[in-house]
Amino acid sequence: MDVKLDPSRDDLPLLANTGHILVKHYVLDLDVDFKSQIIEGSIVLFFEPGNRFKKQSSSIEETCQSESNEACKFRMPEPCHNPVTHTSTFSSKMGYDGFSVCGKGVKDTSGKDGNHDNWEQASGISSSKYCCDTGNHGSEDFLLVLDCCDLSVLKVEEVDVAAVPGIEKFARSPTLTVVSEELRNQIIRELVTLPADRWREQLDYYARCSQAPGCGELLFDTDTWSLQIRKTGTQAATDFPHAIRIRYRTKPQGRSVTWTSDQSGRPCVYTMGSPINNRALFPCQEPPVAMSTWQATVRAAASFVVLMSGENSAKPTQLHEGCSSWHYYVTMPMPASTFTIAVGSWAEMKPETCLSNDLATERSLSSSEADFRYVGVCGHMEYPCRFQNASATTQEIIPHRVFAPVCLKGACQETLLRLIPPCLSAAHSVLGTHPFSRLDVLIVPANFPSLGMASPHIIFLSQSTLTGMSHLCGTRLCHEIAHAWFGLAIGARDWTEEWLSEGFATHLEDVFWARAQQLAPREAQEQQELRACLRWRRLQDEVRNSPEEMQVLRPNKEETGCVSDSGSSVIKHGLNPEKAFMQVHYLKGYFLLRFLAKRLGDDTYFSFLRKFVHTFHGQLILSQDFLQMLLENIPEEKRLELSVENIFRDWLESSGIPQQLYWHENARKGGQSQDIRSGD
């Protein structure tokens, strides 16, 4: 199939200047209006200056200087005769206790400002709008750039966190007695670096600070892909306000959330895995390196249930007749793209009787499975980590809830409810500690474009998984559960390496599902060989019918993980509508891991995998991080010609099917034929 790729439309820009400044925490305060199909409210961002303040390259500076200054004009704030000393522009009801249109029919908004067509360089900063003064490199003001699309930004202001009662304990310097920018920034620096054991206090003060009055509006401008903010006279990221509030509203046609009806005909809205991620739900830093925590208060009509990526199982708080509020929070830093929300008339599904024991349920940990209980300090940034919690490490089945439209109650009780405990237990037996403390499972509307999607603390499943026997539901549930480790707790530093998420989940779903069914070793092997045969045929078909450029698992090659000095980059083919229907990253990644597991032997491979999870959870990785650690754990006699370079060349940086896979599959077929002839 001859498909012409167009980088100006296929590549997704990540413009946030994470090299200069990082968001550490988001506080969202939102109202959901189904009549207008708009989500409106505010978001408060708490920053920490980054560690890369290098002068931008001369070529970028020359581009800025040569382009018209028109691109660098900013909206001046409206004259404000009364200083902002109250919180009327945002909710005072905060408690303390949004995705594809799936690559299909994605609207091109380039006609709005013409910037999309200027997207010419892979660095993502060829247009003057994308490079003006984003760092401290002269007399110009520092420019904060956030990823933003399909949003109406109404107001941006600095937050006077010094006005919060009790906040003075974070002002460490006795010389800072006068309220100033320096004092406010010092308070935020202390707040964002509180130790993990003070996370409740930290969340409480984040919420209090988010309700503090504004202390000055900031200049801002938007274009197709970004929101740019500056404060006059502030030339360095270290001096830029460390807490700002953005008042905004979504647009009905925004591509981060989908407004639709559920299977019972009731309205709902949810994030369904858009190629543009969450930038049309809230302004954010989308590059995966910008790992942050968040808390959100969402108000909707009392008949609706709000589900979200959150550690707590939120319950509604009635604000007034007909309106309820829901509050969620997360203390494990995650990329903003993993934030998920679903609002609808969901009903919680509960089993009518006690679950039977026909599938594995909770059991004690045998001594042979105890080798994943490693000790030592975690390698990630500090947060309340379950891998350091003795009770969490032995928790085979985490608390879970199931939500769906009422009309699917029978199907959920018959199929889904009884599968979750054994699938969670099986995953724990393979990989050890569940990275997340709880799980919600939602049966999403019929327009959901895939079988499932995993986010922190929540899984979306298609209603298609409820049909027929339990096999489809079980395997898909196992796939999404696997993403808790690979894709969420361990993420790809470069999104083009999505095989690190999907390849692992595809390989692990077979292992989890076999254990959940309590299959004998021979039965498990036969089931996995059958699924390998089906995937082999699917991979061959996909390679024959897709562009070669999109068959490469590591398309950026030696530049994988590289970004500009500001932190901006692009996701190659990230907006290509065909990508949503391709499974190359799933299948080639699966066969690579299957090949490696066979080379090591399953026991050695999965023992290594538990060690890898313990080493890298809470962190971002590249392919070489996994491969180097794996090869270090392979006995010399099994390594043969394996090397990181050879695997890159043969599996990750080439289109088509690796030669080793042809050999491996032919050998497997030969073995199966021998079994048949021998009567096994």
From TrEMBL:
Q: Native species of this protein?
A: Equus przewalskii
What's a Gene Ontology MF term here?
A: aminopeptidase activity
The name this protein carries in UniProt is Aminopeptidase O isoform X18
Gene name? AOPEP
Is Protease among the key words of this record?
yes
Q: Which InterPro entries match?
A: Aminopeptidase_N-like_N_sf, AOPep, Peptidase_M1_dom, Peptidase_M4/M1_CTD_sf
UniProt keyword Hydrolase present: yes
Describe the location of the Peptidase M1 membrane alanine aminopeptidase domain by residue ranges: 434-651
Keywords (alphabetical) are: Aminopeptidase, Hydrolase, Protease
Q: Which Pfam families match?
A: Peptidase_M1 (PF01433)
